């Protein structure tokens, strides 16, 4: 094992221990409780139909999120953040041959 690999493992374990001891900011991913789905979609310049088809969301569900009738769960919120911040990576992953 290289020194670099050992240091990465050590840092990960230290973060896990800190998190287990109550440090909610260290080593934890933060997924916001709410997310503005409409602004993400519009920021990408996509219609509801295009966005739902491109990223695998049901059109009715997307409309419900945007109109406040329901909210995305934490996994969907995390996915939406990745779409917003790293669209090209998501597109590459979803359209890989």
TrEMBL record:
A single GO molecular-function term is: DNA binding
Domain called HTH cro/C1-type: residue spans: 37-73
Membrane spanning segments where? none
User: Which CDD domains does the annotation name?
Assistant: HTH_XRE (cd00093)
- Recorded superkingdom: Bacteria
Query: Which SUPFAM superfamilies is this protein grouped with?
Result: lambda repressor-like DNA-binding domains
* InterPro entries from the UniProt entry: Cro/C1-type_HTH, Lambda_DNA-bd_dom_sf
Q: What is this protein called?
A: Transcriptional regulator
């Amino acid at each position: 094992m290289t020194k670099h690999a050992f240091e990465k493992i050590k840092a990960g374990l230290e973060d896990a221990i800190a998190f287990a001891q109550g440090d909610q900011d260290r080593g934890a991913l933060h997924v916001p409780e709410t997310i503005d789905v409409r602004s993400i979609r519009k920021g990408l310049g996509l219609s509801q139909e295009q966005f739902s088809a491109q990223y695998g969301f049901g059109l009715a569900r997307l409309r419900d999120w945007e109109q406040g009738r329901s909210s995305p769960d934490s996994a969907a919120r995390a996915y939406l953040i990745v779409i917003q911040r790293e669209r090209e990576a998501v597109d590459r992953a979803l359209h890989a041959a």
